[in-house]
Sequence to fold (523 residues):
Amino acid sequence: MTPSGVTLVTDDPLWMVWSCYLAQQYGLDFSYELRTIIRTVLSRSPSTSEPARLAEVFTEILRSPKPVYPILQLMADLGILGWILPALGETLDLIPYDAVHDYTVGQHALYALKYLDELRQPGVPEELRELQVLLSELAAPEQLYLATLLHDVGKAHPGGSHWESGAAAAEHACRLLRWSTDATENVVFLVRHHLLMAETSRLRDLTLPETIRDFIAIVSDRERLRMLYLLTYADTRAVSAGHWTQVKARFLHDLYRRAEEALAGGAEPEFHAAQVMRTRKRLLRELSVENVPAEEVAAHLEHMPAHYVLNTSMEEIALHIAFARRARQGVPSVSFHDDRLATYTELTVCTRDDPEPGLLAKIAGVLYAADLNVHAAQVYTRVEGDERIALDTLYVDFRGRRLASAKRAEVENDLVAVLTGTRALEDVLKKRRDLNQMPEKPKQMEILDDISEEFTVVQIAFPSPRGVLYYASRALARLRWDIHSARLSGFRGRSVATFYVTGAKGLSEAEAKAALDMAFAEA
Fold:
């Protein structure tokens, strides 16, 4: 696009936004002369006499089925975007205080739009097709795009929660664009809660009903849930190269599916005795058809917790029953499973439980010695009289990839040796060359008593992800606190781990933190 005359400098600046709309619709670029004129106009801090028309045209850019990112990137480079949305303009050159980010705050938001745009293109990878369908079905995609643009604008005003100051800025932006009350509320909601889905999926036990109940108490609308899912995906991918992983995708999808079912009325976010009983009867019937002895099925389901019964597939339960049979004979089972598209491996370990807390620390120690990254651990204990059988599932990878056959053999051999007592964990850990370096102590510890009804939730931030599950589970075992699940999220030298434990009830927050400090000092 090339200017036809010099009067553009003195004309109403609305023409700049019109030009951007036309460039988007017809795939046009701006000439050097046009770019120079736009920068000259903006240097004079102009105002339009038609703010309603400007708002309408900019909204059409966000609403268009044509790619949105390229034209908004051009608008940002020329200064038009910051002129329309001053709150966003403040962030375009703002260096984020979070070292995880590779880009300025504003550029990160623009790249997030780029990832949304890519979902509209044909030939997206299979693992992204669900997101592609959800984006195509949104009633008002412009609300998602504006929220994505503005989700981090609060970082321009440090001193408080950036999501709250960002929500206020988003409300002001919607008023400038003359959006309806409903549209404004949706955008403000997305900006205010843009971290909720990421944090819940990575750091909370999604098998517990209270997790889903608390989540949908905030995200109480299915359209908002879909937009938040898409925003979380785009936001995570745009942080930096490698920040989006298949493990994060798995947990995020799991949270979306559970919340969607609960909001649609297809699943109750509570464990009712009748629901558990119906599920046990169904599994008993189906597994008996699969030639699994009915008495073994009944005993297994009866002595496993409700969230295991309601969250475990028939195929997995049949496998676990066989594992439990071996465990009673003193033979541990180690199993590996890869989803077809996954870059991680599900590792299942079944063995007799130790009489004292600490079994997970043994398993984690072997994985640490093998240099595996652990992303989550789900710990179940089958209790039948005096017999205790542990059934632990861990999500692991080796340098960002699923475990190859040689690494699997190494892990299995070491686990069996340690669990049967034929080799000391300390001997296995000697493979780690960095064990002479003391692990860095936790940076922050929180006791979250309002997250779970049954468990105490301990959330710990570490300056390094090195050996987090091993050192933390060893410290918790010193306190005789049993770990029932663990979630770990780490990137670029930082890690946050959440542990759902029993054994800490009755302690005040100060007492629990003091006990943890002492346990880590001894670890």
Summary: The longest strand covers residues 373-384. The mean pLDDT is 93. The chain is about 50% helix and 15% strand.
